[in-house]
Amino acid sequence: MSSSRPLTLTVDDAVAVLLLDRPAALNALNSELRRELRAALEQVGADDRVRAVIIGGNGPTFCAGADLWEAGGGSGGVAAQLIEEYWPCFDAIAAMDKPVIAAVGGTAAGVGMSLALHCDLLVMAEDACLWPAFGAIGLVPDGGASHLLVRQLGARLAFQVMAEAQRIDAARALQLGLANQVVPGASLLDAAREQARRLATLSPVAVGGTKQLVRLAMEADFAAVFRSEAAWQERCTSSGHFQERLREFQRKRAGNRGSARNPEDGAAK
Questions:
Q1: pLDDT at 75 over 70
Q2: Cα–Cα distance measured from residue 135 to residue 25, given in angstroms and rounded to the nearest whole number
Q3: Do the beta carbons of residue 150 and residue 162 sit within 8 Å?
Q4: What b/e sequence results for 31-67 when a residue is b if at least 16 CB atoms lie within 10 Å of its CB, and e otherwise?
């Protein structure tokens, strides 16, 4: 059921679920929803209770893109809107040391597709699709879509998909590596929650570090990534989670040694 606000936020079992909640508008991103999405992402990013985040959409559509019924760009123009309102949302996803999972049902179109692709993992319903619809209405890709798709698909395929505004169905998205998992639509949020809960049981330092290293590796050279790995490993080995796992490993290893047969004891009867 839709609420009076354009976004709902719930936190349960260390997992935050952010639902775009404008189903009558196909969850299109208007100025109010952009503000609430940014605030919610910054809130869960700073919440120590939260170990993983899901972004989904209420109703049959993940997000139809920008709300084209709203005045285009306001007084600052479209460029200012993209930089001042969209970029902070995407930056909040990248900056938090927590995995963010997109749960895409129906269509993720335009900048709604960009939002899904900015997430660390992407779970899609079987009948869902990613649609870089920009070219269909005479626009170039935005929200970082060209950056993300070129790195995933390569320049030629990314150009064709974006210029011709080709829909990428869930099976194709999985094949291309744009999606991590495809599930029946009825179990979409459950599948996303299961993935989030698995991640939430792992070391937050290790998961956060892995996320940041993956993002750095898309941009930086080998030396920069190697140095960052070393710095993150220093943090991991100092964490309580690693120390606990190390003690468990040492106890098991000591137990296995103690139960090993002494060759001088002779063969088993």
A1: no
A2: 21
A3: no
A4: eebbebbbebbbebbeeeebbbbbbbbbbebbbbbbb
Return the pLDDT at 60: 95
Residues above pLDDT 90, as percent of the chain: 83
Q: Residue 39 has which token pair?
A: 């605030």
Enumerate the domain spans of the chain: 7-200, 204-258
Kindly report, residue by residue over 90-129, the tens digit of the pLDDT. Answer: 999 999 999 999 999 999 999 999 999 999 999 999 999 9
What's the burial of 98, exposed, middle or buried (CB within 10 Å: 0-12/13-18/19+)? Answer: buried
3-state secondary structure the chain: CCCCCCEEEEEECCEEEEEECCHHHCCCECHHHHHHHHHHHHHHHHCCCCCEEEEEECCCCCECCECCCCCCCHHHHHHHHHHHHHHHHHHHHHHCCCCEEEEECCEEECHHHHHHHHCCEEEEECCCEEECHHHHHCCCCCCCHHHHHHHHHCHHHHHHHHHCCCCEEHHHHHHHCCCCEEECHHHHHHHHHHHHHHHHCCCHHHHHHHHHHHHHHCCCCHHHHHHHHHHHHHHHHCCHHHHHHHHHHHHHHHHHHHHCCCHHHCCCC
Question: pLDDT tens across 6-42, in order?
Answer: 999 999 999 999 999 999 999 999 999 999 999 999 9
pLDDT at position 36 is 98
Homologous superfamily of domain range 7-200: 2-enoyl-CoA Hydratase; Chain A, domain 1 (3.90.226.10)
Q: pLDDT for 246-262, tens place per residue?
A: 788 788 877 776 655 55
